[in-house]
Amino acid sequence: MLAGLILVLVAGGLLAWPAERYAANAPRWIALSALLLDAALLVPYFAGGFPEAGVWLDEVRWRWIPRFGIGFHLGVDGVSLLLIALTVFLGFVAVAVSWTEIRERSGFFHFNLLWTLAGVLGVFLALDLFLFFVFWEIMIVPMYFLIALWGHENRAYAAIKFFLFTQVSGLLMLLALVVMVVIHYRDSGVYTFDYFELLETHFDVNTALWLMLGFFIAFTVKLPGVPFHTWLPDAHTQAPTGGSVILAGVMLKTGAYGLLRFVIPFFPEVVADFSPVAMGLGVAGILYGGMLAFAQSDMKRLVAYSSVSHMGFVLVGLYAWNGLALQGVVITLLAHGISSAALFAVAGALQERIHTRDMNAMGGLWTNLPRMAAVALFFSVAALGMPGLGNFVGEFLVLLGAYRVDAPMTVAAALGLIIAPVYSLILMQRAFHGKSLAIGPIRDFGIRELAVMGLLMAATVWIGLYPQSMLDVSEAWLKNSLKGWGDSVAQQAYSQPWNEGRVSGRAL
Amino acid sequence: MIAAEDLLALLPLISLSVAVVVVMLAIAVRRNHGLAFALTVAGILISLATVPLVSDRVPRLVTPLVVMDRYALVFIVMAYAAGLVAAVLSREYFRIRESRPEELYLLILTALLGAGVLAAAHHFASFFLGLEILSVSLFALIAYPLRENRALEAGIKYLVMSGVASAFLLFGMALIYAETGTMEFAALGARTGTFPSAIGTIMLMVAVGFKLSLVPFHLWTADVYQGAPAPVTALLATVSKGSVFILLMRYGLEAGMLRNPVLNVLLVLVAVVSMLVGNLLALRQNNVKRILAYSSIGHMGYLLVALIAANVVGGNLAAEALLVYLAAYFAMTLAAFGVVAAISPADREAEDLEDYTGLFWTRPWLATVFSVALLSLAGIPLTAGFIGKFYLFTTGSQGSLWLLMGALIVGSGLGLYYYLRIVFQMAQAPELTQARPETGPVGMHLLLAVLLLLIFGLGVYPAPFIDLLHPEIKVSEPGRER
User: Which residues cross the membrane (chain B) (predicted)?
Assistant: First the structure.
């Protein structure tokens, strides 16, 4: 089943490539059916209920390269299930928003799109570090092609920068994980890349610090955290709309997932010492990203920098490492995935219509595009953290959890909630309000686009109003991974207020 | 006295020598391109077929000169396969160019023979003989298109360089012999030389550095790669470098060269500088063959990791890493030069970056092969290059060679840039959007398909190949079975 999830997308991509020859829209339909099949495969996991004891809902384990104890080992738990669902959902969105934008070579486009998604799914599923690394790198290559082939004016620069940042940091991770395996081999005489077996390995503090840094850099580049964020505005701005949706919606999440799944469980002692640094980087990201977002005149760049800011919350929440903050992280990942995907879709739709992303050349578009403007307003408001919408829940929980660990840091992070409205509203104001620049008649959102946006809105409202449904899914794993956490404060933070919140959540 | 068993162990080399003679006689009787080609291919195939016969009888020391073991045999298979590829490429390449290409095949066969001898060399005499057979064949191969100035220039350059290297090599060997009184690798390992033989070893390394185009002995590389016909460059880049590396590993382990701390430091330096300089020089090139030349300097630097680590991690893992990386390097380099040869028009070679603009849309199949080869050279997962790089990371971390690991990461990062530049160029919209039908002979495309499969096969499911190497691969002296 789990391998099927990935296989469907891989096969779909291979089918979509040549299908363009037979009908212009064939690749799109193939991509949609592959994603639909994936969604169908996911249903049983959601329907099956989430046991308290068993964390892993499903696992596959095959031998792959026995010489080094490498296995094809996939597993899904609540956290990865949510992220996979997000990936498949945004996959639909990406196909839908590219429906008219991509006119040339649509077969190869959808091939790349599906393979990127397959790589992302693999990252969320892999429980073998070698396999994880393979997926980690595999998703970069098709994304490179998406940017390099269908990107905008400065695509060569953006695509290569994106590839270089992620690949070089990936090599650091590869070195770190190989060293981990070698240390495990020296202790036990067995080569293994298996997640669970490597969890048992003990590292001395100095080595652990270096290893942790190798992973940390790779994941923070992807997240992206300051100061490794510079690839992101370029890549997002130059990518085609579908590419931006995938990049912002799911690819950034792989970095957070890596920190959550690997870095913190592998090196708990070091992480505790390192957390002020990481949280500091997170806060810096929140504030710096927000300020840069405000200063942009390119609409996509604005949204890209706002991602840096939102991902800062994720970093803060991860390194607070308690139940509240981690639940907040998961919700933020989902909510930001949806809201940023929607904003990129709006920016892409605008560019398709008026051929610019420069907000100086826009203004007064509300009269021309009332529907699109309303959608943009909805998601701007979601992004700025309006209660009742998804992003608010996530960031609120993160701040709540982080406050118990580091109050001053949290206070600084909370300032982000002031900056967010500023940059979100300036986007609305400059593009949709003000004096109309008389561009002439422009096509507003059609039914297809409205349907997609309606789905995204519904998801945001759902997360905002009934987050408990998501929290239940991810709870088991979080509880389990916090079990080994020695810090009593974190334990406390998890057990007491969390349960109260749960009761009140139920009561609502 | 040589027993029949010994001759049997040498079959892969003997049958290839027979092929050389047959092809030579055939050319003398009747000049026919097709015939010479067919005989060459048949000769290589028969020689390859003898390998399974031999593999049960190894390891075996045949005379003090040559040792046949699995390590040598695996490389011989790789080298012969590469020779086969070069022969097929040459057939298509010279069919439309040179009027008398028959001797080319003869030279390819002798080059392979030299490589085979090198892989099995266990003695300074066979070391030198193998290297000279290989090099002399290569001079002629490089300068084969006699009417082209650049090829001629490249041939002369390689000739002079090789001559100097051979002089260094001989002098080095003489110094070592003068002190230790033996020329057998294993016997050398038992004796620790001091002053003259340390100098001798360094001279020997200089010679080898020339052959492998390691920095600072790399100056000839780009010119020769560029000047030589693409199929010959493919042969030069793979067989010639691979066989010298195979020999170096054996010599390093058996003769105890790697135990010398000074030499170790020098090797580390050379490796780091090769990785960095090779990749840096490639950044600014606009000529695909020169880019590949500089990238090969970097790859030779990467390969030194396996050699340097050998002393710490043991010969088994190091030899395994070396062979895996070489197999990957062979497949991807041959594929890359294969594409260069395939898209070259009759009057010149397609080497400018502009020649590759829009290749994805005009000739998608060749562009796909080329991008896969380039991504493999860059070490992207699911390709053979990644498994090779993974092996180097594993060997390097086991040997705690952090400086080298750092250089490897930086080098790979630099490499990525210029490989992607070519891929990007191919992905650009071409001037004429009409897709041209894939021209060119079926054989060439079939060959590229096989190489593509090999790159993916090694990358996706390397277990069978690794099982073949592990744990039997040993670079060590077998007992004298006489």
Answer: 6-27, 34-51, 71-91, 103-121, 127-146, 158-178, 198-220, 232-253, 265-284, 291-310, 322-344, 365-387, 399-420, 441-461
Give me the percent of chain B exceeding a pLDDT of 70: 95
Q: How many CA atoms lie within 13 A of A395 on its CB side?
A: 29
Check CB contact under 8 Å for B381 and A138.
yes
- Is the pLDDT assigned to residue B322 strictly greater than 90? yes
Whether residue A487 has pLDDT greater than 50: no
- Asked if residue A505 belongs to a domain, the reply is no
Range of the domain at A288: 1-480
For B386, which residue in chain A has the nearest alpha carbon? A134
* Chain position carrying tokens 């360094």: B202
Is there a domain that residue B232 lies in? yes
ipTM for the complex shown: 0.91
| Domain presence at residue A280 | yes
Supply the range of the domain harboring residue B216.
Answer: 4-470
Q: Beta strand pairing status for A58-65 and A70-76?
A: antiparallel
Q: Touching check for B5 and chain A: CB below 8 Å? A: no
Token code pair at residue B233: 């460059």
Question: What CA–CA distance (Å, rounded) separates B230 from B90?
Answer: 8
Pairing label, strands B66-68, B60-62: antiparallel
Q: What is the pLDDT of residue A225?
A: 87
Q: For residue A193, is it within any domain?
A: yes
Q: Give percent above pLDDT 90 in chain B.
A: 65
> Cβ contact (<8 Å) for A172 and B380?
no
The dihedral through the CA atoms of A215, A218, A223, A227 has a sign that is positive
Q: Which residues contact A250 (CB under 8 A, 6 or more apart)?
A: A83, A86, A87, A90, A117, A120, A337
Q: Tell me the shortest Cα–Cα distance from B375 to chain A, in angstroms.
A: 9
Interface residue B382 vs chain A (CB under 8 A): yes
Interface test with A, best of B389, B393, B401, B414 (most A CBs within 10 A): B393
Instruction: Confirm or reject contact between B266 and chain A (CB < 8 A).
Output: no
Task: Tell me the per-residue pLDDT of B333-377, one tens digit each, with 9 for 90 and over.
Answer: 999 999 999 888 887 888 888 889 888 888 889 999 999 999 999
Contact B381 A134 (CB under 8 A): yes
Give the total number of structural domains in chain B.
Answer: 1
The residues in B 38-97 lying below 8 A from A, measured between CB atoms, are none
What angle in degrees, to the nearest 10, is found between the helix axes of B124-142 and B102-120?
160
Number of domains in chain A: 1
A227 to chain B, minimum CA–CA distance in Å? Answer: 19
What string of DSSP letters covers B79-106? HHHHHHHHHHHHHHHHHTS-S--HHHHH
Residue B478 lies in a domain: no
Q: Which of A487-501, B27-41, B410-424 has the lowest mean pLDDT?
A: A487-501
What is the model's pLDDT at position B206? 94
Residue B62 lies in a domain: yes
Contact A64 B461 (CB under 8 A): yes
Decide if A175 and B382 are in contact by the 8 Å CB cutoff.
no
Most A CBs within 10 A among B360, B394, B403, hence the mutation to make, goes to: B394
CA B114 to the chain's CA centroid: 12
Q: Is the pLDDT of residue B298 over 90?
A: yes
* Whether residue A244 has pLDDT greater than 80: yes
Taking only the tens place, the pLDDT of each residue in B149-208 is 889 999 999 999 999 999 999 999 999 998 888 888 888 877 766 778 888 889 999 999
- The distance of B249 to chain A (nearest Cα, Å) reads 22
pTM for this model (two decimals): 0.92
Distance from CA of B108 to the nearest CA of A (A): 36
Asked, for residue B198, whether it belongs to a domain, the answer is yes
Whether residue A170 is predicted with pLDDT greater than 90 in this model: the reply is yes
Mean pLDDT (chain A, rounded): 87
pLDDT of residue B478: 41
pLDDT of residue A496: 40
Contact criterion met (CB below 8 Å) for A311 and A393: no
Does the CB of B421 have a partner CB in chain A at under 8 Å?
A: yes
Residue of chain A with shortest Cα separation from B378? A167
Q: Which of A66, A156, A178 sits opposite B463 (nearest CB)?
A: A66
